[in-house]
Amino acid sequence: MGEFELIKRYFTRQARNTALGIGDDCALLQPATGTQLAISCDMLVEGRHFLSTVDPFKLGHKALAVNLSDLAACGAKPLAFTLALALPRADEAWLAPFSQGLFALADAHGCELIGGDTTQGPLNICITVFGEVPVVNGRSQALLRSGAQAGDDLYVSGTLGDARLALEVFRGSVSVPTALFEAARLRMEQPTPRVALGLALRSIATAAIDVSDGLLGDLGHILQQSGVGATVNADTAATLVAARACQTKTDGRLTTAISPAQWRDWALAGGDDYELLFTAPVSKRQAVAMVALASQTPVTRIGQIDLERGLRLVDDQGQAVPNIYTSFDHFA
Amino acid sequence: MGEFELIKRYFTRQARNTALGIGDDCALLQPATGTQLAISCDMLVEGRHFLSTVDPFKLGHKALAVNLSDLAACGAKPLAFTLALALPRADEAWLAPFSQGLFALADAHGCELIGGDTTQGPLNICITVFGEVPVVNGRSQALLRSGAQAGDDLYVSGTLGDARLALEVFRGSVSVPTALFEAARLRMEQPTPRVALGLALRSIATAAIDVSDGLLGDLGHILQQSGVGATVNADTAATLVAARACQTKTDGRLTTAISPAQWRDWALAGGDDYELLFTAPVSKRQAVAMVALASQTPVTRIGQIDLERGLRLVDDQGQAVPNIYTSFDHFA
After folding, report:
1. Of the given ranges (A23-37, B137-151, B291-305), which has the lowest mean pLDDT?
2. For residue A184, which of A158, A165, A171, A169 has the smallest C-alpha distance?
3. Same domain, A130 and A209
4. Which of A9, B128, B243, B255 has CA atoms 20 to 30 A from the CA of B82?
5. pLDDT tens string B193-250
6. pLDDT tier at B135, thresholds 50, 70, 90
7. Which one of A27, A41, A47 has the shortest CB-CB distance to B116?
8. The CATH number of the domain where A8 resides is what?
9. What is the CATH number of the domain that holds A255?
10. What value does the mean pLDDT of chain B take?
11. B98: domain range?
């Protein structure tokens, strides 16, 4: 199968939202009047972002999910994406499920593949995604990292740390019961981009970011760009590891030797979570609860924004917890 | 040097045209009223699109040039681009010249880096580029592959086949004098995207494509999408290999044993040319000559579009030349 046949067979579908899709030198995209385009780009490399053994269907899902997560963090409505793919060989047994996983998520969000590139090379998936953000009275409605205000509540969506737990099991550094591993693995391999929540937060949140490098590391970007500090309840965050619930058997005994400190570490600095971390005024607590409900996305208040710079961790008793966490760095 | 430091040091500059540049979950881009966005994406892989020994400055140039060439082929004005970069390590001796080469060309075209991604992995450069195309009376002014009409002239810009000659020298399959090699190598390593010509052709050309996989292969896309055929003068095309001029010494003798047929092969199916191949009505010959002059881009008429499907090659005497050429295919 040649390059053009590969593109035709697995990646060409009828253009819908766009003026012109795949098959010319460029795709043509015309954003609606009164909107801006939000653009983000993520590159996934085998052995770095995913294991060579991963199910291609799940990989197709994840490659787009991590990009949609960036749109969600901006409150942008998904429109379209480009896909550049380097493959060791044109392997149909891989391409068919990969494209199915990709399009299943794309279709769920009305996000159209409008162009891209395929080439031979070490497996590498690069997606650039385009979303729409309204501009009202000359003011963009995009959620930025820079809008957090002292006194704001700090929230995170969904669950934290599960992807890291699954990674540690793959690495052989911990051993856990199958049910617990499967719960964690689902979060690592098929994260859910919080698109509906992001859209609903446009008029509520003051700042937002998606959690990809670890909660505290990504919180650092909000704090730096907003010029504020924060206090985070580490115990609350630690409860957000979904797999943790699987460690308690019906008789109440624990099935693992994972310490509370370890759960906390994964929640605070696990990485690969693709949840939304956001701030909102205290006056918006009811509104936040309502959009969480409407978007069927759990949201947990984990702290607050402070005038005083820096990040303070506390436990449930209000006692200081040392901050030993660093953000994931691809070159560290 | 970590990932964020790397991005900050080499790839972050002040946003200009865009509403919001690097440093948030998404970049924000607001196309001017009455315009469409043209979007294209190219991935360059070490060992496939460039040699590991290539000068990083030139590679930075080429990575953007091949993308700008796609905008040129659509008649789109460059606006912005994203860069995703997988690197084996954060090597400053490579990153500094790479980013300089990239920004030198970007600045020459007013094309702004608005976002991207960096990660560790086998060297891979993925650029997605955004350009602007006017929409007049509801009609896009983009040049497409599908507009060629029977009777149109067929033109190509610049020179052909030089990149392929340089590649063959690197492969050791031919040996040529240094001056000839250097002329060819410049075309391989630093192709010139024909942006000004593409913009000027908007109201003149009926169809256009950029020549990246070989002249005849890319012509095939125009013919297929326009539902027409073409006759190409192979001898005229063969004169467009710039390096060929270097083979004749001042005393008129040839310095190489490269046959006329070989020059022709490289011109017709060399690949990596990044020239514009376009069609225009016979009535526009004067206009084509004027925009070639105005954009300082040589343009050569190499054939014509026919009602009869298929591609016919002829020589200067009008005799048929067998078409033995196939387009470059990354998986063939």
Report:
1. A23-37
2. A165
3. no
4. A9
5. 999 999 999 999 999 999 999 999 999 999 999 999 999 999 999 999 887 777 767 6
6. very high
7. A41
8. 3.30.1330.10
9. 3.90.650.10
10. 90
11. 3-139
Q: In this model, does residue A154 exceed pLDDT 80?
A: yes
Say if residue B160 is in the same domain as residue B16. no
| A164 and A296 together in one domain | yes
- Same domain for B25 and B127? yes
pLDDT digits (tens, 9 = 90+) for A52-85: 889 999 999 999 999 999 999 999 999 999 999 9
Q: Angle B260-269/B215-226 helices, nearest 10 degrees?
A: 50
Q: Domains in chain A: how many in total? A: 2
Q: B312 and B169 in one domain? A: yes
B60-80 as b/e, with b when 16 or more CB fall inside 10 Å? bbbbbbbbbbbbbbbbbbbbb
Looking up tokens 């995170």, which residue turns up?
Answer: A156
pLDDT-derived band at B329 (thresholds 50, 70, 90) equals low
Q: Do B37 and A30 touch (CB under 8 A)?
A: yes
Q: What is the mean pLDDT of residues B102-120?
A: 94
Dihedrals φ, ψ of A304, to 5°?
-150, 160
Let me know whether A38 and A80 are in one domain: yes
CA distance A172 to chain B (A): 22
Asked whether residue A145 is assigned to any structural domain, the reply reads no
Residues 117-146 of chain B with CB under 8 A from chain A are: 117-122, 124, 126, 128, 130-131, 133, 135, 140, 142, 144-146
Nearest-by-Cβ selection for A331 from B49, B120, B331: B120
Is A156:A277 a contact under the CB 8 Å cutoff? yes
**Of A19, A82, A331, Cβ closest to residue B90:** A331
Q: How confident is residue A110, by pLDDT bands cut at 50, 70 and 90? A: very high
Does one domain contain both B196 and B121? no
B42 reaches A (C-beta below 8 A): yes
Do the beta carbons of residue A273 and residue A215 sit within 8 Å?
yes
Instruction: Return the pLDDT at A243.
Output: 77
Q: Can you tell me the distance from the alpha carbon of B4 to that of B23, in angstroms, rounded to the nearest whole number?
A: 10
Residue-wise DSSP of B112-149: EEEEEEEEESS-EEEEEEEEEEEEETTEE----SS---
Q: Does the residue B173 lie in any domain?
A: yes
**Cβ contact A24–B86 (<8 Å):** no
The average pLDDT across A184-201 equals 95
